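Figure 3 (text version): structure tokens given as input.
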């Protein structure tokens, strides 16, 4: 089954093998993953096709077919398809934890129409939904945008 995220402009296909999660990612030009970190899991990428710019920690690196990159647990990272065609990546995540559910739920929220093309909530209800999402998955994925201070201010909305 393919999962589509229209805001991040990506499609995912998942395969679970015990505590290893394999994800095939197809990112449209401009498709991206915003700054985040995983407190307890390592993420490894292989670029199969396309041109992708990664930021891992403070290092920024362009990658193309055959390039492999790793974000250890706790290290801030992001990527963007900076090419002019669809980029294809193979990702391994270990331990898998709840990352597949996180990505599926994020994509569903982004397909709901409750968020702008930039991922900004269109209503108080959407902001509350985003706050609940951030709180639910904080042990798997820590989103770094909006900044943590803003996230703390929005946290009470999670109870709505």
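Below: residues designed for each position.
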């Amino acid at each position: 089954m393919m999962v589509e995220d229209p805001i991040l402009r990506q499609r995912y296909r998942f395969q679970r093998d015990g505590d290893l999660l394999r994800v095939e990612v197809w990112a449209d030009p401009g498709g991206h993953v915003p700054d985040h970190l995983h407190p307890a899991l390592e993420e490894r990428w292989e670029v199969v096709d396309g041109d992708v710019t990664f930021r891992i920690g403070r290092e920024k690196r362009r990658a193309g077919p055959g390039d492999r990159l790793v974000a250890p647990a706790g290290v801030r990272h992001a990527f963007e398809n900076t090419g002019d065609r669809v980029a294809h990546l193979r990702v391994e995540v270990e331990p898998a934890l709840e990352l597949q559910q996180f990505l599926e739920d994020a994509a569903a929220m982004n397909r709901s129409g409750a968020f702008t093309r930039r991922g900004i909530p269109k209503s108080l209800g959407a902001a509350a939904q985003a706050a609940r999402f951030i709180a639910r998955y904080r042990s798997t994925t820590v989103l770094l945008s909006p900044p943590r201070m803003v996230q703390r201010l929005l946290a009470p909305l999670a109870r709505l």
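Residues 2-97 form a domain with the Jelly Rolls fold (CATH 2.60.120.10).
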